[in-house]
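Lecture 7, part B: from sequences to assemblies.

Below are the input chains for today's worked example.
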Amino acid sequence: GESVGLHLPTLSVQEGDNSIINCAYSNSASDYFIWYKQESGKGPQFIIDIRSNMDKRQGQRVTVLLNKTVKHLSLQIAATQPGDSAVYFCAETDNYGQNFVFGPGTRLSVLP
Amino acid sequence: NAGVTQTPKFQVLKTGQSMTLQCAQDMNHEYMSWYRQDPGMGLRLIHYSVGAGITDQGEVPNGYNVSRSTTEDFPLRLLSAAPSQTSVYFCASSRGPMGEQYFGPGTRLTVT
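Predicted structure of the full complex, as C-alpha cells:
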C-alpha cells in the first residue's frame, strides 16, 4: 500500500453541492476497484465498484470514473447530504481479486 | 442474517500475551479476510481465505495466524502481542474474489 501520514485529506462541501473524491493508484495490473464509505466507529461499507474494462459506472447518486492512462479513480456524489459525511476509501486488486490494497482515505465533511 | 460478526469489540493485552479475535459470517461466503486499520490510515490486509481449509498471507501477516476449518468462521490469532499490533481489526467476507465485501464492526485492540 501507499505510505500515508496521520492527517487525512479533507474535502468540505455545502449540502446540496456535488462532491468529487479522487484516488491515485500505482499498480497498472489492477483490474478491479471499489469505493468504500466508513463512518466513525464502523466498518467500511461498499458504495460502488468498477472493472478495468470500463471507464464509468453509475449508481444511486454516485458515479465512479476510471482513467487507466493516468491511474486515477474518482468518486462523484451528487447532491451531497449530511449523511454522506464520512471517510471514503478506494481499494484496488488484480484480476485474482484476492489481495485488496486500500488508499489512505479522504474525509468528506458536509456543511449545512 | 447477522452478516459479519466480530468479538470482542474491545480488548487490552499486555505485551507477550496471546489471544484470538473471532469472526463469523452467516452469508455462506467463500472469501474471508482480516485487515488492520491504524489511525488516519487505510486498511491493510493481514490474511485471507478463499474457502474452508485454504488461507494465504496478505500485506502484513507477521505476528498473526489464521485457520479456516469451516465456511462460517475465520479466527485471527495473535501469538505474542506487541505494542505495534495496537490497531482496529476488521474482518470481511464476500461471495467471490470480485464483488462487494461485507465488513464486521471491528475489534479495537490495545497492547500495553
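Note for the exam: DSSP finds no helices and ten strands in chain A. Keep this in mind when comparing with the next example.
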